[in-house]
Amino acid sequence: MSLSVKMIGIGDDGRESLFPPYVEFIQNSDFLVGGERQLAFFPSYTGEKIVIKGSLKALFEQLRQLSGRVVLLASGDPFFYGIGSYALKQLDVAVEVYPNISSVQLAFARMGEAWQDAFFTSIHGRTIKGLAQRIDGREKIAILTDEVNSPNAIAKYLLEFGMMEYRVFVAEHLGGPQERTGWYSLDEMAEGLFGSLNIVILKKQHDGPNRQGLGIEDEEFAQRKPDKGLITKKEVRILSIANLKLQEDSVVWDIGTCTGSVAIECGRLARMGQIFAIEKNEADLENCKQNMMKFRVDLTAVHGKAPAGIEDFADPDAVFIGGSGGELRELLHVCCTRLRPNGRIVLNAVTIENLYDAKKAFEAEGFDVEITLVQISRSKPILTMTRFEGLNPVYIITAKRQVIEGKGEMADE
Q: Which intervals hold domain Tetrapyrrole methylase (predicted)?
């Protein structure tokens, strides 16, 4: 007998959530696959039960070896942050899918609100890292949770970033006998007790901090302030970030982040991506962390002198180098080696020696180099008149892999 698979969405009320034909599919199947809680809804099932736990890859390897009728139980809608897409990729047979009402759909019904205009994100089995920039400024947000990323943990996390403009609706055990829903402030949610199965919905009650576009004013950042301030100046920052060609989901490295100004602006543009920053000066790193909270960008900032310290960073789509600490050639080799296809590296240099070294190093790695000399002057009042004061000239060096002529592929050597 060949393998046939039906995937059926099931609610928290178990068998009661299923249409009669779906129950019949289950009763007539040879194998019933699901979580322990889902399988417990069918105590009299006569076929073989297979529990989903541990490696999904191993589970689907097992399923591919079966012959007969398989029913795979999934929570709610299998294609809404569920097992659906993964299952279809892993199985080489046609899969019939019968979705149920999703937990998010049911939560909005209990809340009495439309949900087509909401932003959806999941931290179920995922890290909460980066949630702040993903949701900042959005009017209505639905969050799928788990036992680690509980309503309490979410509330404490949002309080760290000062997101007091949101009130929260928590829907627990939807559709089941233990269903409970209610509204909370972040402070109330941080101290509350909640069931393990829940949906968290944030709704903005009033405006938060102004989410301005690219080009945050220099004085907005916490920073060390010698004569001219240790920060990548706004005008240079804008041009440098423009050359990185960021996408919404880009992975970005900021080497020598100092105040974090570039990393933070990148995080507000690549809000669905990941931002990694490294800084050798502890005092600057503390300023960077203050700025992260102020501007609601949950980047990974580490203390170290690159290239040491970046081993655990995800491979980047874009790299900004504001300071090299004297290890320029070794650093550029690491960045060029780990850069993803079509990625870009932007390096700011203020001396012709660093400009020369960077250009030669990039060319040795098989990268094309473009250089822009930026000379900026800002207006300053002088009595009743206006004068201009020049900033330090900066070389913006942009590097990308050479294209092999006629092949449209990136050169690796």
A: 7-182
pTM of the model: 0.87
Cis preceding linkage at 226, omega within 30: no
Q: How far is CA 399 from CA 180, 183, 207, in A?
A: 55, 51, 40
Q: In terms of domains, do 369 and 223 share one?
A: yes
Helix 328-338 to helix 352-364 angle (10° resolution) is 40
Alpha-carbon distances of 188 from 153, 160, 185, 191, 348, rounded to whole Å: 12, 15, 5, 5, 46
> Is residue 58 classed as helix, strand or coil in its secondary structure?
helix
294-338 pLDDT, tens digit per residue, is 999 999 999 999 999 999 999 999 999 986 666 789 999 999 999
Query: Is the predicted pLDDT of residue 260 greater than 50, yes or no?
Result: yes
Contact between 171 and 110 under an 8 Å Cβ cutoff? The reply is yes
331 and 287 within one domain: yes
pLDDT digits (tens, 9 = 90+) for 54-82: 889 999 999 999 999 999 999 999 999 99
pLDDT at site 411: 46
Express each pLDDT in 135-158 by its tens digit: 999 999 999 999 999 999 999 999
32: containing domain: 3-101
Q: What is the H or E stretch that residue 152 is in?
A: helix 151-160
Q: Mind giving me the DSSP string for 331-381? A: HHHHHHHHPPTT-EEEEEESSHHHHHHHHHHHHHTTEEEEEEEE--EEEEE
User: Could you tell me if 224 and 362 lie in one domain?
Assistant: yes
Per-position b or e across 74-113, b if 16+ CB within 10 A of its CB: bbbbbbbbbbbeebbebbeeebebbbbebbbbbbbebbee
